[in-house]
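For reproducibility, we list the full input for the 2'-monophosphoadenosine-5'-diphosphate complex.
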Amino acid sequence: MKKLFGVIGDPIAQSMSPQIHNDAFEQHNIDGVYLPFHVAKDALQTSVKGWRALGGCGFNVTIPHKVKIMQFLDGVDQDAQQIGAVNTVVNESGKLVGYNTDGAGFVKGLKEITSFHEKNVAIIGAGGAARAILYSLSKENVEEITVANRTESKALELIKSLHLETLANASSILQLEETLSKYDIIINTTSVGMYPNEDEMPISLSFLKKNCVVSDIIYNPLETKFLKEAKKQGAITQNGVPMFVNQAAIAFEIWTNIKPCNTRMEQIVMEHLGGKTC
Ligand code: ATR
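The corresponding predicted structure, in tokenized form, follows.
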């Protein structure tokens, strides 16, 4: 019988997950199908019940369900529990168990272009994406992490809730802009610069350190104004595609125990987004 996989979210039509997972099933001769399911906020619990009844294998969870889904599962992996959000669910012999592959996917993607050893890292934003990334980065041997946010108090709350006060500190956006030259890696986790607000930048980049790494988790547009500006100043840049591909690849491996081909997944995403390179 065909194995059922999918992604639940609202909105969901834009999701590229069906293309990359269906292609990976085909590549690995797995008789599976991955479908997008439009699930509104108030239908989340019912959709999980439906999934159980249908005997579906695994599914991804996206906005706005990543936090609320946890209460409807039978178990949540330790990392996902710490992060406080689930983006991948697997049916383990009738028990639905939640994982979070966002932070690990981000770290894996950035490791393709830099090491974290003794690096001074700045994270812009203090929302859900920042939380997963901060948690995963804290497992790497970075020197120090600064979390800068428009609402500075939220940056401090985030650090405290993950018990990372010795590794991380909170900052305002202005403070980060003024001390930018001390950072080796700068990561934008906010939606500032995302389509259709492509003219916006999360911070100004006047004091960028030479040869630093600048990452933006946005992939629409493929190159945000923030990345363009950083590149102009000689920074090594990375967009959100590697994070997206790696979170999907880790989820695929959780479901199937097979490592899919990341390059192939990336090609599919790039084709879909109409770009040629990352
Ligand atoms: P996500 O789950 O995608 O991270 P989120 O939890 O809503 O989304 O968090 C959004 C982050 O982007 C927050 O850090 C938010 O800053 P505030 O905490 O001050 O709201 C930041 N953000 C969103 N729009 C912004 C803007 N126009 N300027 C600056 N920061 C913005």
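The CA atoms of residues 59 and 83 lie 19 Å apart. The two ends are 38 Å apart (CA to CA). Both points were considered when choosing residues for closer inspection.
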